[in-house]
Amino acid sequence: MTAIQICALIALIVLAGLLVWAGYFMGHNDGMSAGIKESDEIQRAESAKTIGELKASLDFIKADHARLVRFSKHLQEGPSLGETERQTLLNIAEKLRIAAETFAAFRTGKKLERDTIELRDKALAMAALLAPVTT
């Protein structure tokens, strides 16, 4: 082998090494950029999933809040029982008083008399709760 052939062989080996190194370097850079893109896509997909779950949760909370607002307004409008129900309870209490006096006349009606008086007291208590508030 001549000196020119040896120099050419060395140059070819060096060029082949540089070509392999350049290919490795470019493949490494391409792999890194592809990995970063894939990582970003995965992160975006997870974020989108989390955002979707949070939106669903928010919609549920909004619906629940709206239901609670309607229920609160219904409660604030006042009791559904009014003066007519109060008068009915007072009439029931009067009838129970009469029944208690009737049972008191019988010797065996003492338990019925106690039960009737107890029911009358409960009816009067409910009627008192329905009484209009005066300030």
Can you give a write-up of this model?
Helix 2 runs antiparallel to helix 3. The protein starts with a helix and ends in a 6-residue tail after the last helix. By secondary structure, it is mainly alpha-helical. The protein has a domain at 81-135. The protein is built from three helices and no strands. It is 87% helix and 0% strand.
Element layout with pairings:
Elements: H1 3-76, H2 83-105, H3 110-129
Helix pairs in contact: 2-3
Can I get a quick summary?
The protein is mainly alpha-helical.
Oligomer, anyone? single chain
The average pLDDT is 86
SSE run: HHH
Distance between the termini: 123 Å
Number of helical elements: 3
Number of strands: 0
Tags for this model:
mainly alpha, 135 residues, 3 helices
